[in-house]
Design goal:
Blueprint lengths: L11 H23 L1 H10 L17 H17 L6 H21 L2 H6 L1 H15 L12 H4 L1 H20 L9 H5 L1 H9 L13 H20 L12 H8 L6 E5 L11 H5 L6 H4 L15 H4 L7 E5 L2 E5 L2 H7 L22
Antiparallel strand pairs: 1-2, 2-3
Helix pairs in contact: 1-2, 3-4, 3-8, 8-12, 10-11
């Protein structure tokens, strides 16, 4: 094989996949390694993104304590007429502050590099490309219709329903309404060999409804992931929670203006797993969209030098490069379809 056709196996996407797989093991099975007591302590100090219903994990998702504190402290406190005091808000404030202390360093890369559900969705999409399934994408005119869903889920299931449960208006099961329907609850527990979270209880109609909806969402996400990139990530309230403070973190996506070329090839938008079409047309802070997970694929598939960067403060961690682009496109296409190997004519030099 000539020097021009050699492919460098070390790409940002492969490094990210390795990190994702390591974090998948840590977030699902970490508790089995460090022990329940230590993993519980880590969870209280630094909430992560693994599901609390997985008994083998090393931490838990910060959305659960937010719901529980609204349910058991804020809502019930108002009912008991103890007043809306700082003593009720401090626990939820501590949960958010410890989460964002970690978030400051990772920003939305938490979604693109750590989340176990996100990792499994990406792996399933790669399987879909390998077996030749058609790719389904959200058109530029339609993607905006999906984006508000994550904010509605954050407001409705993570905040409003748990608070109403604490007030006694909503059923007790709504105290952790989002976790009742989260597909990660089933995914991570199945990976540990437990099928308990797939069971549909018959003790009450609310629990039965939540369980049926949870199973339906899980099934839809698993099937859709073979043809649609990151189907659940688009409506995940954790993505919305990150988006609220994404501009406060030194970890960010930066795109420089390049009026002569940018917006014409559109490869960065095609490479984006979240169908962020704005990355092709905008620059500056507009390019770092609320749906961005800092996966870096837009920078990988930008054919111009130094236009798109992943930066931590003033330090570029990865930047677009024409040389990297030529090597990267030998492996797969921007939408993830694999490149078919080309055969050399007989008699050609190796």
């Amino acid at each position: 094989m000539s020097a021009e056709t050699k492919i460098n196996p070390l790409t940002l996407s492969r490094i990210r996949l390795f990190v994702q797989l390591v974090m998948l093991v840590v977030t699902v099975y970490g508790g089995a390694v460090m022990g329940h007591y230590l993993s519980d302590k880590i969870s209280n100090e630094l909430p992560a993104l693994s599901c609390v219903f997985d008994q083998e994990n090393g931490a838990y998702c910060t959305l659960l304590p937010i719901q529980h504190q609204l349910h058991h402290r804020v809502g019930e406190g108002i009912v008991r007429l103890q007043g809306f005091t700082f003593s009720m808000l401090i626990p939820i404030a501590i949960t958010l502050l410890t989460f964002y202390a970690f978030f400051v360093f990772l920003n939305k890369a938490f979604c693109g590099w750590v989340c176990p559900l996100g990792t499994v969705q990406e792996v399933l999409y790669k399987v879909g490309r390998f077996v030749g399934l058609p790719v389904r994408r959200l058109a530029k005119d339609n993607v905006g219709r999906v984006r508000p869903a994550k904010w509605m889920i954050l407001g409705g299931l993570v905040i409003v329903l748990p608070l109403l449960a604490g007030l006694g208006v909503a059923p007790h099961a709504a105290g952790d309404a989002y976790c009742q329907v989260c597909p990660s609850r089933i995914l991570t527990t199945l990976m540990t060999g437990s099928t308990e979270q797939m069971a549909v209880p018959t003790s009450g109609w609310v629990d039965m409804m939540f369980a049926a909806l949870r199973n339906a969402i899980f099934g839809f996400v698993i099937i859709a992931a073979f043809a649609v990139r990151q189907p659940f990530c688009r409506v995940c309230p954790m993505l919305a929670l990150h988006a609220l403070f994404r501009r406060l973190s030194p970890m960010r996506l930066v795109k420089k203006p390049h009026e002569e070329k940018c917006g014409k090839c559109g490869l960065c938008a095609k490479a984006c797993p979240m169908d962020i079409h704005e990355i092709a047309d905008d620059h500056g802070h507009k390019a770092f969209h609320e749906d961005c997970t800092l996966c870096g694929r837009c920078a990988e598939f930008c054919p111009d030098d130094d236009i798109i960067q992943l930066k931590f403060g003033p330090v570029p961690l990865f930047r677009s490069s024409s040389d990297y682009f030529r090597n990267r496109t030998k492996i797969d296409k921007p939408d993830g379809d694999l490149r078919k190997p080309t055969r050399k004519p007989e008699g050609a030099e190796a």
